[in-house]
Amino acid sequence: MAVDVMVVCPHADDAEFGAAGTVARWTREGRRVVYVVITNGDKGTTDRSLPPESLVAIREREQRAAAHVLGVEDVVFLGYPDQGLEDTPAFRKDIVRQIRIHRPEIVVTSDPYRRYLWHRDHRVAGQVVMDAVYPFARDHLAYPDLMAEGLEPHKVREVLFWAAEDVNYHVDITETFFVKLAALRCHESQVRELAIPDLESWLRQRCMAMAEGEAFELAEGFHRVEIFW
Questions:
Q1: Angstrom distance (rounded) from CA 177 to CA 208
Q2: pLDDT for res 152
Q3: Domains and CATH numbers, the chain
Q4: Residue 26 has pLDDT above 90, yes or no
């Protein structure tokens, strides 16, 4: 069944930091949203006593809880190793498959073009998602075996990139800020790693800064690309 929005994130918790307030707005409006989580997050801890396989289970559980808070109906875990993403035909095909399965109007993911201190998984993920959207998900001769599976080509209409340096689109999340905060708090293992004394104040300051110059108090910012086929 087609969805309105597909959010593709490198790790569990990335979507909550980048777009949870916007996702909460969409689901309140009745839009259907699916999450695709690329990596298993097996390296996201400083706790040397925690085995990677245990961390994977924790992070999957946390992500499902956060999605539930936001009203996201489905979460797909691709299971790639943390810190191991490469721009490969197989990875691109996996994203194309998800686009053709879910047939979203909007795709949301991490911006691949930040210049400094950007996790490599985020950079690679954003690039691969962008390539999957155009031209591979669109063209019937790309991955013809997907056609054999019954997965017809699909044209995405819009892409939103979070954590962009060239933000050109702001979403008012004043009414969904506390939903975003609640979803973030579901990621207990990762919030603990951040060691932020007051998560609410820290997050509010970030969202206030993103709304500067707008007519609303709190925002999430994206680089928005409309696709005209």
A1: 11
A2: 97
A3: 5-226 (3.40.50.10320)
A4: yes
